[in-house]
Amino acid sequence: MITPEKIEEWIKEVGERPASAPIILQYISNRLRELTDRNEKLLAENIALISGKRVEEYEQRLNHLEYQLELLKRQIGSNLSPEAMRGSDRATADSKSLEVLNILIYRPEGRILSIELNPQSLIDGFNVCQIQGELLLEEEPPRLLVVSSKEEIMSIYTSGRISTFPVASILPITTASDGTPGIIRWNQASLPDEPRGGERLACLMPVSRLPLAEFFVQTSRRGFVKKVRTSMAQSILSNHYIGSGVKLPLDRTFSICLGGKDDHLILVSHEGFLLRLEMTRITSSVEEAIRLGTSDHLVSAFLFRPGFSVLVMTQFGKAVQITEDRLEVGRSLRTKGQTTYSAQRREKGARVVGAGSVNGEDWAASLHQDGQIILYSMANIFASGLLPAQSQLLTFETFLSPMGKS
Amino acid sequence: MSLRVGIDFGTSNSGVAVSDGAHVKILPIDPHNILPEVVKTVLYITRDQQYYIGQEAVELYYRHNVNRVRRFAKKWAGEIDYVGAEIHYVRDIFVYVDELKPGRMLQYLKSALRKVGSASGYEGTQVFEQYYQVVDLIRIYLSILKKRAEGLLLENIDGVTLGRPVKFSDSVEKDRLTEDTLRQAAIAAGFREVSFEYEPVAAALYYEKMLDRSQNALIFDFGGGTLDIAIMRIGDPHKRHLYASGGIDIAGSDFDRAIIQERLLPNFGIEQASHHPEIFELIQAVPDWAALPDLSTPQNRYNLEHAIQRGIAPVRLKTLQSLIFNDLAFSFYNQVESSKIALSDQGATVIELLGKDVNLWELYTRFQFEKDIRPYQVQIEAVLLDTLGASGLEPEQIDVVVKTGGSSNIPLFSNMLESIFGVERVKASHSFSSVTAGLAICARENR
């Protein structure tokens, strides 16, 4: 900092050694230039503050944070309830209930089946239940989602409409108590928000991570992607609309996931093509990311977990594990991506039914042609490379074991 | 035949040289340095107890530390017994330890050596899981120097002549204790024969090589830690005579401290924090290079953040916070030292420290520097005249004044010598290597 005493001392230096004058002048003018630049930036900031632009920005941020807080409250609400605080037995029961997983099975018509799954019963090859009745609807198999019973779910429709509901609001279907696989039917399914005219349920997404995420990443069946900032979440949720993320007339919304700017998105197609894409390459407008063949479509879109592998599952139960070093990062959009298995196997009819970024502690649930839903330990899949299944797979979904238990 | 080298173990810089009787070779002991013949007296110890010295230590320190992440953990450090008239209880003591700290930089090892057995009671320091006594730190430093020298000479080194100031301490007992500590460190580093020579005497012996007749020389060895003066008859190795020697614990590091004290503390909010003792104490510790690394505790962070929130000189306290918690201390002291050196050649310089939340800029002139160190100059002049008086010689009987050591280049002291002895009699020797070279000559003669 410059004080009058210091200036006096500088003048004395020049008085004693006139040769010092140019260098002092040089130092002061450099500093003055630097401070002028900084001053200009600060003035611009000040103008933004005075004009209220910053206030608006902060108000938006506050609204967004308030919404996120509301979501979190809903998730842990029962634990914080006065009853739970008063009664220790009740609190223990609640903490147990936290561990309950739900397998959600859903179809484009909006019907959702929920089956409770106690993590203590996570056993490799465990036959959860058998669905009776027609499995394929409009040639599409049901999709699976394994989530905690305390989750909040966002449902996305092909029109771009969204709605939210807690998992607990879907009445779980109890399977047979004697340990044999219970039989369930589609007429037992819930319909939390019936699709409106012409629209279909595209996917379900858990939203508890919303406060930690920076973007929604939306994908379409034909491999188009777009991202939306989560700071828009409040407006999206209040308007119940995020957009379809579709450009082509015959395309439709496939999935949504939550991510950050450093994440990588993995897209896997039915015919076994895979694309790894940096989040920074994805724009907020709808762009074609992976160029798919005319009969191909996406079957899985998820975020890559660094240090993990990608596991791709075919309908025959053959697992293809791709380690991180073999995952090429897509340098541009509109590419075919890398193949996950040989062209010969593709010609023989091998098709992908699901994929995920996993390690040996993860689990998977699969829906088979005979309607059975079976659990598999990822460690065993890694070891054998196969699912010991009697019938072909329709859907394959990976999930993290609760509290890291395997 | 055993090989002996001379080692100048300086406060700021060190060096190793060897003599074959006809020539002296200063070894390029620090290949990473701009001047490979000079190695910084710094020791960097990593968490896995790897040791680095000189420029390599500096570079590694910067790479590992600046703007790194910290994680403090509370650890049990010991217990204290409280014994009263009717009460006795034991209390646990906990300290906060930065678990992610990759290494510890130790500088001014020679100053630490001088504190052994002194009132300040500096005996050693804890570096991660290991406690190092001062003798251990110097042993490590000397053993690396020895290993490097052996690598360059392709020969085992058995003996060393180490330089020492004329006075490690005013107390004869402490002076002996300090020399013994240095000797122990050298022996532990692998030197079987260890001898000592006064640093100014060593500088005189090197200067003697250039003489063809005997002269009365005053050696003014002014480095980073001490000023050492020797008045000698040199020129004929068989008729050398030491008239008198003297010295004082004032040198470059004191000037650095004076600059910080007089010019830079306002940048950290010392004026505004005068009514906030917890912050004031922190700022007062800034000139002390040894204290600064220990200030990065969670309590101090909390105090600073609290004061910033309360609006007590927020920009200046943010600068202080960044200095303490972003490991900028080493850069800061280096900047101050470089600015001081720059003022030997030019009339003005800028002390600048940039970093996260730091934008410190201080225009500093030679006029200001000389004003700040004037009290030291008075003391130095008194010691010089006392030593001259003790030699029984008059200023005009001194044929040559040989300046050596980095601080001897400061114009204030050059002018002082010139005004006492005359411009034509003041000569400059190699600032950083004349003592080293002289010690190599001593080592050769002691063989």
Question: Can you put this structure into words, describing what you see?
Answer:
The complex is a heterodimer of chains A (406) and B (447). Chain A is α+β, with helices and mostly antiparallel strands and 406 residues long. Helices cover 26% and strands 30% of the residues of chain A. Chain A is built from eight helices and 22 strands. In chain A, the strands form six sheets. In chain A, strands 7-3-21-20-22 form a five-stranded mixed sheet. In chain A, strands 11-9-10-14 form a four-stranded antiparallel sheet, with no helix packed on it. A four-stranded antiparallel sheet of chain A has the order 15-12-13-18, with no helix packed on it. The N and C termini of chain A lie far apart (61 Å). Chain B has a domain at 4-196: Nucleotidyltransferase, domain 5. Chain B is 39% helix and 27% strand. Chain B has helices at residues 54-65, 109-115, 134-153, 172-188, 199-208, 252-264, 277-284, 298-309, 314-325, 329-342, 366-391, 411-421, 434-446, and strands at 4-9, 13-19, 24-26, 39-40, 42-46, 51-53, 72-83, 88-98, 103-107, 124-127, 130-133, 159-164, 193-198, 215-222, 227-234, 241-248, 348-355, 358-365, 400-404, 426-428. In chain B, strands 1, 2, 3, 4, 12 and 13 form a six-stranded mixed sheet that branches.
List the helices and strands and how they pair.
The complex is a heterodimer of chains A (406) and B (447).
Chain A: H1 4-16, H2 20-50, H3 53-80, H4 82-86, H5 88-98, E1 101-106, E2 112-117, E3 127-132, E4 143-148, E5 152-157, E6 162-166, E7 182-185, E8 201-206, E9 215-220, E10 224-229, H6 233-239, E11 253-259, E12 264-269, E13 273-278, E14 287-288, E15 298-303, E16 309-314, E17 319-322, E18 338-339, H7 343-347, E19 352-358, E20 363-368, E21 372-377, H8 378-384, E22 393-399
Parallel strand pairs in A: 3-7
Antiparallel strand pairs in A: 1-2, 1-4, 3-21, 5-6, 5-8, 9-10, 9-11, 10-14, 12-13, 12-15, 13-18, 16-17, 16-19, 20-21, 20-22
Chain B: E1 4-9, E2 13-19, E3 24-26, E4 39-40, E5 42-46, E6 51-53, H1 54-65, E7 72-83, E8 88-98, E9 103-107, H2 109-115, E10 124-127, E11 130-133, H3 134-153, E12 159-164, H4 172-188, E13 193-198, H5 199-208, E14 215-222, E15 227-234, E16 241-248, H6 252-264, H7 277-284, H8 298-309, H9 314-325, H10 329-342, E17 348-355, E18 358-365, H11 366-391, E19 400-404, H12 411-421, E20 426-428, H13 434-446
Helix pairs in contact in B: 2-3, 3-4, 5-13, 6-10, 6-11, 8-9
